[in-house]
Write a structure and sequence with these properties.
It is a single chain. By secondary structure, the chain is α/β, with parallel strands linked by helices. The chain has 2 domains: 21-141 and 353-368, Nucleotidyltransferase, domain 5 (2-Layer Sandwich), CATH 3.30.420; 153-349, Nucleotidyltransferase, domain 5 (2-Layer Sandwich). 46% of the residues lie in helices and 20% in strands. The chain contains 18 helices and 12 strands. The strands form 2 sheets. The protein has a 7-stranded mixed beta sheet with strand order 1-11-12-10-7-8-9, with helices on both faces. Strands 4-3-2-5-6 form a 5-stranded mixed beta sheet, with helices on both faces. A hairpin with a 4-residue loop joins β8 and β9. α5 (141-151) crosses α18 (353-381), α9 crosses α17 (327-340) and α12 packs across α17 (327-340).
Length: 392
């Protein structure tokens, strides 16, 4: 594997847009903007995103995340805990209040692995609807991977972006990779997507994906009888074994060896490691999202986390109390992925399912407007056949 002293390349600051770029195939900017809201309910966190769609850009209005630990104890009991349910419903009530501050025309709320696994998930979702008015859809692991891919589109489809940030001379002579490996380390599962990119058409295609039924919460609970060091090493070995079947199908190592893979990490784990690598005094999404880091820098971040006490982890501005006991499990998952597919660099993405949801809502809205506009032109310009074409 090629060695480099490059630690990271800080990207230029972007406007506060989802994806930090304009919507593809824009139409004339709307006279009145439209507002969309997306809620992503996961095993550890509940996330809200409200955006304003002006027709040529999506501007973030509200971006909020709360640690609800809905999946706490799920791997052992198979049920959602009553206290966790109450915490989550309180957070969802807060989200509804925030949404009502804006003239939101479309709301999309989804739940992932935590509600795919829990035996009492339907009862929980019924309570959510009765107490908040929100209808939450439980999506499949395939849909989860597709939304994550959607959110990373601007990082995948722009060779110019990649070349600007992969500035090291050893990389400058290499073409932009036409393969990407995207991983999303969640609380209850980890999704890994193998993606083909067509830089000519600026399109990307999901070639394959796998969902490991372990995230930072379930993996922590799986090895909670061991010492921290034993649990960490066991977790790395366990996840590595789970990745082997995916590798045997797609032969990703061969593409990695040819430096034809763009690695992208989505999740609190990878953004936490990036924050530590950049030595941030407080977490700042706009310094993290889209940054390209060397994997050596991320390895140093893991080493720092391992050396920190529980109190130090809780006090760290990029970790905090809610993630202090879970962060090592996320590091173990990342280390297993990196050991299986050892790339030199990784793009850090502070974006995910809620970003994918609002992009879909905006695109669907544009499609409807174009269809209506085309229908108007058709009926205004085309002669009517038969009796309807005759003047009365």
């Amino acid at each position: 594997m090629m060695k480099t002293n490059l630690t990271y390349q800080k990207r230029k600051s972007f406007p506060h847009y989802v994806h930090s770029h304009k919507i593809k195939t824009p139409i004339t900017p709307y006279k009145t903007p439209f507002y969309y809201a997306a809620i992503d309910l996961g095993t550890t966190s509940c996330r809200l995103l409200v955006v304003k769609d002006t027709g040529d850009a999506l501007k973030i209005i509200e971006r909020y995340s709360s640690s609800v630990l809905l999946g706490e104890g799920l791997s052992k009991t198979g049920l959602l805990d009553e206290c966790a349910i109450n915490r989550t419903i309180r957070t969802l009530r807060l989200f509804v209040k925030k949404i009502h501050n804006w003239p939101v025309s479309n709301i999309s709320a989804i739940a992932t692995e935590v509600c795919r696994q829990a035996a009492n998930a339907q009862e929980f979702l019924r309570r959510v609807f009765e107490e908040t008015g929100l209808r939450i859809d439980v999506i499949s692991d395939r849909e989860e991977a597709e939304l994550a891919l959607e959110s990373c589109g601007s990082l995948l489809s722009s060779p110019r972006y990649y070349n600007q940030h992969m500035h090291h001379s050893l990389y400058a002579r290499k073409p932009c990779p036409n393969r990407a490996l995207i991983f999303d380390i969640g609380g209850g599962s980890t999704e890994i997507s193998w993606v083909r990119t067509d830089h000519t058409s600026r399109k990307y295609f999901l070639s394959g994906m796998t969902s490991l039924k372990h995230g930072i919460v379930s993996l922590t609970e799986l090895f909670d009888q061991l010492t921290l060091k034993e649990a960490y090493n066991a977790a790395v070995r366990y996840i590595t074994s789970k990745l082997e079947s995916f590798e045997s199908i797609y032969c990703i190592k061969r593409e990695v060896a040819q430096q034809n893979v763009h690695m992208i990490g989505i999740s609190g784990t990878i953004t936490t490691l990036a924050g530590i690598a950049l030595d941030l005094k407080r977490y700042d999404r706009y310094q993290i999202d889209g940054t390209i880091l060397s994997c050596n820098a991320l390895a140093q971040s893991i080493h720092k986390i391992k050396s920190m006490s529980q109190t130090a982890l809780e006090l760290h501005p990029c970790i905090g109390r809610s993630r202090a006991s879970l962060v090592l499990a996320g590091c173990a998952i990342y280390e297993a992925i990196q050991a299986m597919w050892p790339t030199d660099m990784i793009t850090v993405a502070d974006r995910g399912l809620r970003d994918g949801l609002v992009i879909r809502m905006a695109r669907d809205h544009q499609f409807r407007l174009r269809r209506e506009d085309n229908n108007k032109h058709y009926f205004n310009e085309q002669p009517r056949s038969g009796a309807l074409a005759l003047s009365i």
